[in-house]
Structures are given as structure tokens and as C-alpha cells.
Amino acid sequence: QHASYLAAREGLRGVQRMLEKKKSPYPRDVVHASARRVLMRLEVDLLTLSPPVPAQLVNIRLLLRWLEWQLQSLKSTGALRQRNALASVAARLSTMATIVDAVVGDRELLDLTEEDWIDVALEAMALIPRTYRSKKLMRARLKAFHSYLRAHQSRPAALVPPVNWTTRELAVASVMAASPLLLPWEIEAVRS
To answer: How many Cβ atoms are within 10 Å of 40's Cβ, its own excluded?
Structure first.
């Protein structure tokens, strides 16, 4: 189990390195084939495991499936409105594996509730980004990943719940890094 996870993470890092290069010298189909090989290797490894499959393996498989979908889909679909240019894919993927490991941990992504997704976003924004813009980008990456899971990975027995990505909590978490000034509702909370 651990070896499968490490191989999948290393494969994902290899694809990330291919994407990270400015104006990647690798054609899209080469990057896509590489991501597909890593995903297929993990899928085969998962078939040999007896249930239940550890959440970390399920989550890395979901990340790889999202990556593979982005590389395969040149244009956004009705359910998912996002640019899938290589630079956009690279930006969305850049910190996701780290966030999923550090914040989601041993929970399965498909089992998270709306509140769990908001907590994941808040923790992710607290862990990595330092500026308002980077916090906003982190929220956008998580939103894009969540949208993919809702559109393509929901199970009939357990649908991925909708999430209000414009909640006050997330907005406050984004703004807190941008300004040391208190927001009106924060001033009101201090007064009471």
C-alpha cells in the first residue's frame, strides 16, 4: 500500500516537473500519456489491494484522474468552466497533492461534507498562501478540484455535496492576510 502511494506521488511529481517548465518543451500529448501511465499503474495496484483501500490512495487517484481529465479536455465542459491550457493545469496542480496530504489526511475526498470542504479551504489558505491573491488562488484551485469531483466522481450512494465557495468565512480568511484593518462585522463582534 505504502509503495503504491509513493510510486503514485513520484509519478505525479514527474508530471508536475514536465508542466512546471516555462513554455514546457513537452507537447500536451506527451504530458497526457505520462499522467495516464501513472494513473493506470495506480489503478492496477489498487485492484490487488483488499478493501478497504486507504484514503490516501483513493485521494491520490482522484488527483491523478483530475489531472488526466484536464490534459485530455482541451476545452471546458458545461459542468466545468475552466481553462485547460498547460500553464493553467500546472498552476492548479502545483500545491494540491501537498494540501490533500496535509489537510485532508486520512479522510476520503468523496466523503467530505460541505463544512469539511470549507474547513479544508480555510486550512489550505492558512498553510500555504501568504497574500490575498495567493489565498484567492488557493480557494479557486480547491473549487476547481471540487467541481471536477462533483461532475465526474460522485457516486450514486454518496454524492459530492455542493459548496458555497463565497461564504463569509472564506471571504474573511482571504481578506485577513490583505489588511490589518478590522472588517465591519469584526468591529461589531469586538463591541459585543
So the answer is: 12
Question: Look-up: residue for cell 509519478?
Answer: 11
Location of C-alpha cell 511529481: 13
Query: Rounded to two decimals, what is the model's pTM?
Result: 0.83
Q: Which H or E run contains 187?
A: helix 184-191
Residues present in the chain in total: 192
pLDDT at 179 over 90: no
Task: Label residue 179 exposed, middle or buried (CB < 10 Å: 0-12, 13-18, 19+).
Answer: exposed
Cα–Cα distance for residue pair 71/33, rounded to 1 Å: 9
What's 179's DSSP letter? -
Tell me what the pLDDT averaged over the chain comes to: 85
> What's the pLDDT tens digit per position in 92-110?
888 898 899 899 989 999 9
